[in-house]
Structure formats: C-alpha cells, structure tokens
Amino acid sequence: MNSTTSLYGIFGNPVGHSLSPVMHNSAFSAVGYNGTYLAFKVIDIGTAVNGIRALGIKGVSVTIPHKVSVIDFLDDVDEQARRIGAVNTVINRDGVLKGYNSDGLGAVKALTEKTVVRDRDVVILGAGGSARAVGFGVISEGARVTIVNRTVEKGERLARELGAEFHPLSDIKKIDAPILINTTSVGMSPHANEIPVKEEMLDMGMVIMDIVYNPVKTRLLKTAEAMGCETIDGVAMLVYQGAFQFELWTGMKAPIDVMKKAVYGEL
Ligand code: NAP
Question: What is the phi/psi pair of residue 216, to 5°?
Fold first, then answer.
C-alpha cells in the first residue's frame, strides 16, 4: 500500500464474519491492482455514505441492515437495483455515487453455469431480501418462478411484485419444477442440521441450489447429492456477485478461481 492505493470496503452490521475482505483483497493482489478492501461496522449509513465522498473511497459493498436504506443517500441507482429495491454495490465516479445490486446477477451466473433456466420452472424458497434479488434475476433470464414461503403474506406480496405464483410450504409437493433454490437461512450454521424442505420433495434429476454458504455443504445439498441431483452451493453466488463488483470497480476481469479459493479457504 502507498499513497495511490484505492480504498474499498463493506458497510454492514455485523461485518466481523464477512468473507468479502479476503475475497476482494485476494483478487486485487492476484491481478496486481493497487487497492485494499476493509470491513466497516456501520451504524449510521447516511454518515458512512458521506464518508465515501469525504475520503474518496472508490467503492463499497453494502450488506445487512443497510441494503435498502442506503438508496436514499446515493446520487443514482441502476435500473435492476431499483426494481429489486436494494443496493449491495456502490461505485464512486468522481464524487457521483451510483448503486447496483449484484446478488441477482451472481445467483443467475451460478445457476446458468450448471443448467438452463430460460422457459423452465424455478421454485424459490423464501421471500426475504435475497429471494427478491434472486427472483428478479432468474425472471429476467426467462424463468417461470413460484415463491414458497413460511409466512404467507410475505410470500404472496413478493410473488405479486415478481409476477410469479405463490404456494405455502405445505403445498410444495404439488409443484412440479426441475430447479429449486433455497434463499431462506434454514440450514445455516449453527443450525446446520436443519433442512428447508423434506427429503421426499426432491427428485433425482433436479437442480438444487442453496444460497446459504456456511456450511458450504448444507444438509439440503448433501441430501440432494445423495439422491443424484445436480447441486450448486452458496459460494458460487457469493463469488459471482463479488466478481461483478470487482469488474465494476477496477475495469479488470475478475480472477474467479482466486476468489473462490480464498472463500473456500476461509470456510
Ligand atoms: P431475510 O431477508 O431475513 O429472509 C429470510 C427468509 O428465510 C424469509 O423468507 C424467512 O421466512 C425464511 N426463514 C427463516 N427462518 C425460517 C424457518 N425456520 N423456516 C422457514 N423459513 C424460514 O434473509 P436474506 O437476507 O434473504 O438471507 C437469507 C440467507 O441467504 C442467509 O443465510 C444469508 O447468509 C444467505 N445469503 C447468501 C448470499 C450469497 O451470496 N450466497 C447472498 C445473500 C444472502 P419468513 O418470511 O416466514 O420469515
């Protein structure tokens, strides 16, 4: 690091367990980019965004709980992020701050490297922030989506906004779809023995993606693998959404393998 090092970071709370610093710093050093990326525990997002302008921070990732509230403090928001209603990436172009959302793009890339989604049925478990991003992402790739969620009103609301169908969890067996994506936190450490759907809902030949990345092999993925399904872990989405950020910020091609290795190493 020297006096021309570009500063990047993540704004969230908590951020102590974020994998983004190790992922982005490994990428910067692999391509010889003079940048560094830090984790900032942010309580007041408005003040933190002013800090980007004041200090000339080149870009930030934004995570829970600021993905929605950050929008009010930016100069511009990309169309897809506006539709999702959340920003997870900010770039500072000569003092003009623009927000993007790379979660949907990351999920689509992780999915489409393993299977085709156009004109196919996709079940999304969950109706939270990431379900929104993943839903908009796969729909813009031409998939038909069904939302399945524990809280009916939340699931119905998201389905309406996406132009998708909704089914309560108890009805999941009635849905015939070759692709299922878990966007709930069920199965995440320290509750790694939990599974968001019963085993009998899965069929050989299905593609099962879990966006939970800690543990990398969730109980859902282990079960699906044992049944002969194609599986996609949460690290793929994490790395591809990070690769979008890296490319936006640096204008260089993201070293995907380096980023994956850094994240798997941490996990
Ligand atoms: P969120 O907005 O809080 O949404 C959580 C969702 O999980 C809701 O739909 C909630 O259902 C459901 N849920 C929680 N506990 C449940 C339970 N016991 N049974 C059934 N449903 C349950 O969270 P989020 O921001 O979308 O994040 C969800 C997960 O995705 C987290 O594990 C996060 O780490 C992971 N994630 C991964 C990536 C990646 O790049 N791989 C990116 C973002 C997030 P209700 O509506 O009924 O409460």
Answer: -65, -45
Beta carbons within 8 Å of 263's beta carbon, 6+ residues apart: 19, 22, 23, 213, 235, 238, 239
Which residues form ligand 1's pocket by a CB distance below 6 Å? 103, 106, 126-131, 149-151, 154, 183-186, 188, 211-213, 234, 237-238, 241
Domains of the chain: 6-101+236-266 (3.40.50.10860), 105-232 (3.40.50.720)
- For the segment 230-241, what is each residue's pLDDT rounded down to a tens digit? 999 999 999 999
Judge whether residue 96 has pLDDT over 90: yes
User: Could you report the per-residue pLDDT of 11-35, keeping only the tens digit for each?
Assistant: 999 999 999 999 999 999 999 999 9
Residue nearest to atom 13 of ligand 1 (CA): 184
